[in-house]
Amino acid sequence: MSDLNTAELRDRAIAAARGDAPFDLLITGARIADVLLHELRPADIGIIGPMIASVHAPGTRSDAARVLDASGLIAAPGLIDTHMHVESSMITPETYAAHVAPRGVTTMVWDPHEFANVAGVEGLDYAADAAANACARLLPLVPSCVPSAPGYETAGADFDGEVIAALLARGDMHGLAEVMDMGAVISRAPRMRGILSAALESGKPLCGHARGLSGAELQAFVAAGIGSDHELTSAEDLMEKLRAGLWIELRGSHDHLLPEIAQALAALPQLPPTLTLCTDDTFPDDLLRAGGLDDMLRRMIGYGLPPLWALQAASYNAAVKLGRTDLGLIAPGRRADIVLTKALEDFRASTVLVDGAPLREAAPLPIPARLRGSMALPPVTPDSFEIAAPGPQARLASIDRPRFTQWGEIDAQVADDRVLLPKGATRIAVLHRHGRVPVVPRVGLLTGWGDWRGAFATTVSHDSHNLTVFGADPADMAAAANALIACGGGMAVATQGKVSALLPLPVAGLVSEAPLPEVAEALEQLRRAMDEVVDWQPPYLVFKALVGATLACNKGPHQTDLGIADPQAGRLLTTPLL
E strands, 346-417, where? Predict the structure, then answer.
């Protein structure tokens, strides 16, 4: 914010506001979206450099180096996405910003824990440099979850309290990203205690991930100093977390929850000032088709949230959460992040200003060597995906249900000292790919995931992003896995022992340098191939569930490179055999 606080800029802005000097830019004819008074009122906007100098009665000033006629349009504050992961869109940070900024998203709070889990501090350095190079405001946070479940998985790096304290001291890091190891927070585990203490001492915000927490567990989580959450499961969950004083980053990636949440909010006498909006994870085809936070804004309005309430959540509330007194309002002294749109109900940006200027082009920076060649494991064989067992029968632990997992048990036949896949089960295997520990394939069984007719492999695998492979036939699983080992990571589908779709993501196994349309088309082809492999059952058994099946910090069992992990229950099985 220091660029707005130079005496010279303030001198110029005050002189222009008084009428003693012309504006650099004058926006005329618009109606201002006032998110505090919840009104649309006619006003002109005078801008000096990156700052709004004056918001005054229409037609009372004409002295400006440049005049922008916005007749018939609404001037809204730039949208602020309070929690997102660039890497989930599988494109570079600059490419991401270049797509969402023209839609009105001028500030994004980015948790780059995907890059950090693969490449450590070097991944975070790249994130900071790319953010500074982007055409809109990307604010990187320090990842708290490298790995997300220490002792239960192995990532490409390890950020303890000492590392995090050093990172938070940097001026290009804006807070502690979502704290995901909920069990460690609540139990006050020493490592997590050190991480939280470092963040509290930094004076920067602490963001959270409180999926499924309620009652005493939620109270303990908030008492640890964590200030926000985006992991809502229902309208009731939303209200409990608002009552606990959490900032809510209401995310667009779980659309099935939004109608009931919008109705619950609309029934309140006023919008909670601690409610903000975010995208969290957006796949490239969804980003290209629908957009970023602008899409979330439109959906919430469509589900019944009053338009100015939704805009307040996406601008002013978000600015207050960030401690950014320069953002979130169209008012004198604020930063000139302004979006012109025809209507709030169908928010579509026609003109976007960042720092009082049109969007600039920003070519992506070169990719550091550390983020290339991240597949540090040899090719695999079908035997890698077998579960060895003495015959003739075996009882195995299983991971039941997508997304909201629970422990299960299943009986299986054994032939030639190998478990035969039981009816209703799917194999899941995780292989460490970062070169930090020996590669030992850990194979488990999923139930409730349908009957598979092929295999899927991915290195986008939250949050340690090891190589994860799903399937019924080990030959298909090996084909999909080897395709990714060869191309540097990404996603692959295989049927009948051959690859049927491939999305290469050679930057950390997460991101492509290709343009968004090209990446989106490749993912759409891969989705179509997956439609032939498994029958989806929304809202839980969906394509996106594949990349979260290893998220070991969440409640319940999850497969990792160390076995079946359930940190909150203190349970780790290196083999599913019971």
Answer: 349-354, 357-358, 393-400, 406-415
- Indicate if the pLDDT at residue 497 is higher than 90: yes
Please state the rounded mean pLDDT for residues 239-257: 97
What are the tens digits of pLDDT across the range 319-372? 999 999 999 999 999 999 999 999 999 999 999 999 999 999 999 999 999 999
Nearest-angstrom CA–CA distance, 240 and 252? 20
What is the identity of the amino acid at 179?
V
Instruction: Please state the rounded mean pLDDT for residues 379-398.
Output: 96
Query: Which of 295, 284, 324, 329 shows the shortest CA–CA distance to 491?
Result: 284
Between the two ends of the chain, the Cα-to-Cα distance in Å is: 58
* pLDDT number for residue 229: 98
Query: Three-state DSSP class for 18?
Result: helix
As a whole number of angstroms, the distance between CA 435 and CA 432 comes to 7
CA distances from 493 to 131, 354, 386, 434, 442 (A): 32, 41, 19, 22, 20
Contacts of residue 424, defined as CB under 8 A and 6 or more positions apart, other chains included, come to 410, 447, 451
Half-sphere exposure of 24 toward its Cβ, with a 13 Å CA cutoff? Answer: 15
Packed helices 293-302 and 307-314: angle between N→C axes, nearest 10 degrees: 150
Contact 112, 86 (CB under 8 A): yes
Q: Which pLDDT score is estimated for 2? A: 84
d(CA 4, CA 355): 10
Burial class (CB in 10 A: 0-12, 13-18, 19+), 291: buried
Structure tokens at 492: 């692959």
- What count of Cα atoms within 13 Å lies in the side-chain half-sphere of residue 547? 22
Task: Give, in order, the Cα–Cα distances in Å from 411 to each of 418, 563, 564.
Answer: 13, 19, 17
Looking at the DSSP bridge assignments, the partners of residue 66 are 25
Q: What is the value of pTM for the model shown?
A: 0.96
pLDDT grade, residue 518 (50/70/90)? very high
Using an 8 Å Cβ cutoff, are 344 and 76 in contact?
Answer: yes
Q: Which two tokens stand for residue 302?
A: 């469509």
pLDDT for position 399: 98
| DSSP structure class, residue 366 | P
Q: Is 279 helix (H, G, I), strand (E, B) or coil?
A: coil
Alpha carbon of 515 to those of 42, 95, 284, 363, 507: distances in Å? 40, 7, 10, 11, 14
SS3 content of the chain, % helix, strand, coil (to 5): 30, 30, 40
Asked if 196 contacts 221 with a C-beta cutoff of 8 angstroms, the reply is: no
Question: Which pLDDT score is estimated for 68?
Answer: 98
Question: What is the CB neighbour count within 10 angstroms for residue 36?
Answer: 11
Per-residue model confidence (pLDDT) at position 529: 98
Whose tokens are 């220490």? That residue is 150
Q: What is the pLDDT of residues 175-215, one digit of tens each?
A: 999 999 999 999 999 999 999 999 999 999 999 999 999 99
Q: DSSP state, 341?
A: E
pLDDT at residue 464, rounded to an integer: 97
Give the pLDDT score at 62.
Answer: 97
Strands 206-208 and 176-179: parallel
Q: Which residue has 């707005």 as its token pair?
A: 4
For residue 539, say if its preceding peptide bond is cis, omega within 30 degrees of 0. yes
